[in-house]
Amino acid sequence: MKKNILIILCILLATNLSAQKSGKDFRYYKSSIDNIASYHSVDTIRRDNIRLSFQDADLSLKEQKQIVYAIRRLFEQDRYSNLHWVGYELLDIMWCTNQNPLEIRKMLMETFLQYYFYPEHHASLVEIHNSESRFDYTNKAKKRIREILEGKKTKEEYVLHFLRNRTIYNKPQIGWDEAARIMKTREMRNTTVLKQLRDSILETYVVRDSKREFEAARIKPNLIKMIGLLEMTECIPVLKQKLAECVKTGDCLYGEEKACRYALARLGDEEQRQYILETMNIHNFARQDFLYFKDDEIIWRYIDVGYLPGEKISVLSDVDLDATLLSMNDVYPFIKNVPPELICPTESYNIEVGGRWAKLFYEWLMENRDHIEFNFEGEKKWFWPHY
User: Fold this and answer.
1) Is the pLDDT reported for residue 381 higher than 80?
2) What is the pTM of this model?
């Protein structure tokens, strides 16, 4: 009897250990990345979805580092533009894995920033509203951010833009019609000349587009805002210069001017903080911005300008919300000690119920204005969670 019990226990233990090891191992990921890289190692643009997830991975810290090194090698090759795209995709997929060790997050961030001006750059690992994300940035990463802010690029990066555009134009049908039209105007019929003319046209396209893309590559607004969270005061002069250029010429990315103002205000620039207070309205200030500034005066200003009874605000293509509900919905999670009768009715997203609650909540805020305390962790639920 005891022997049978012991056998059963051993079976259960083995089953449990097998379950614990059910995640995909290093060989699986190494083989998957090799296969993905091999498939995309072609001289034409290839963009098939990468079906790879690290959520159920069974990898040691050392093995995770080796995966990051494998991703870096995709950027270090200079033959296939597709592999740079694969590199960014894999960075994003690995970054989104739950509970990455901090050491791995730092490596992923350094890799992302190191190749910031490479072509195919589309994803962003920057989380500007998560205060914990500040720990993802090493001194090396911060140094690289300043270089990106200053627009420092290399000839090697230009060559890779050239490589990408040559891949884009590597299609048999491109250029022939234009070459034939030119030949016709010259009243010539010569196959060799036609091909030379077509090659010259493609080379012109490649150079033109590569130069345009390379010069247009610049720091994204989210990374500018991160400079504020990282307290990189050494970047203040460059931020002020960039802001002045945006205001003067209007030649800036969507959100770039706003990002410069936010970063400067976060770094202690009172002029920019005052500008944000004076121009704030419910349309241009997001609820996540409270987490960025963690500033009582800013949230009170939003309450004052956002309480607009009867005004409708479009939050989705087919949804309009009452401005009162929207503004109170935004500030509610950051208010401490809300009385039980004013807890947000999140169980039922009924607009009429929400509207009545918003009015009562606003009146309570005004009556207790001198005693309200804020908690910028934002742990409560929003009435309207998605917009």
Assistant:
1) no
2) 0.84
